[in-house]
Amino acid sequence: MASDLHLRRKFTFLAHGQKAVFIKKPIERTEHVLMKAFLWALYLPRYPNLRIEVAIGKRYKPDVVALDSDDTPLFWGEAGRVGARKMRTLVSRYRYTHFAFAKWDARLSPYGRQVEKAAVAASRRAPVDLISFPVDSNKRFIDHQGRLLLDLADVTWQQFAPEASAERPH
């Protein structure tokens, strides 16, 4: 990555013609920052107004989020550790929100059972994605200019789709 794109606690990435700055907090692992960036790049084509770590006025703050005109989340991305209670709360409270939960170099099956159980119990109307980024993602998906080059075919990915699709209530 070019030296001007990576400072000690700041990463600047490019994807799909957009640029975003990711700040690494002192207690945060680099992999957590990279997962947020990868989520941003993966879902940016579908949600071009994706924002990073924006408080939405509720208890939980998404790592990556796209909001509709009423500030209701259309997409919510979480990187790293998410407790079972938080995950259940989110998928049931925001039934019409597309979620993506990302892990770093993890087997998805234990998380998949948890996500599927919560999604079914919540009668969801939008998908929930579970993604595992490979251990060498920082080398595979970032070019020397800070461009993020990946899609869902490059990662381990599962989607839990709703039984019946429905329009978001207005």
Characterization of this structure:
The protein is of the alpha+beta class. Helix 2 packs parallel to helix 3. The strands form 2 sheets. It has a 6-stranded mixed beta sheet with strand order 4-5-6-7-8-9. Strands 1-2-3 form a 3-stranded antiparallel beta sheet, with helices on one face. It has helices at residues 30-43, 84-93, 109-121, 137-140; strands at residues 6-7, 10-15, 18-23, 51-52, 64-67, 73-79, 98-104, 128-133, 156-160. It has one domain (3-160): Roll (Restriction endonuclease-like alpha-beta roll fold), CATH 3.10.640. The chain is built from 4 helices and 9 strands; from the N terminus they run E-E-E-H-E-E-E-H-E-H-E-H-E. A hairpin with a 5-residue loop joins strand 5 and strand 6 (73-79). The mean pLDDT is 89. The chain starts with 5 loop residues before the first strand and ends in a 10-residue tail after the last strand.
Instruction: Give the integer mean of the pLDDT values.
Output: 89
In the CATH hierarchy, the architecture is Roll
What oligomeric state best describes the polypeptide chains here? single chain
Name the CATH class: Alpha Beta
CATH homology superfamily name: Restriction endonuclease-like alpha-beta roll domain
In short:
With 170 residues, this protein is α+β, with helices and mostly antiparallel strands. The chain has helices at 30-43, 84-93, 109-121, 137-140; strands spanning 6-7, 10-15, 18-23, 51-52, 64-67, 73-79, 98-104, 128-133, 156-160.
Question: What is the topological layout?
Answer:
Blueprint: E1 6-7, E2 10-15, E3 18-23, H1 30-43, E4 51-52, E5 64-67, E6 73-79, H2 84-93, E7 98-104, H3 109-121, E8 128-133, H4 137-140, E9 156-160
Parallel strand pairs: 6-7, 7-8
Antiparallel strand pairs: 1-2, 2-3, 4-5, 5-6, 8-9
Helix pairs in contact: 2-3
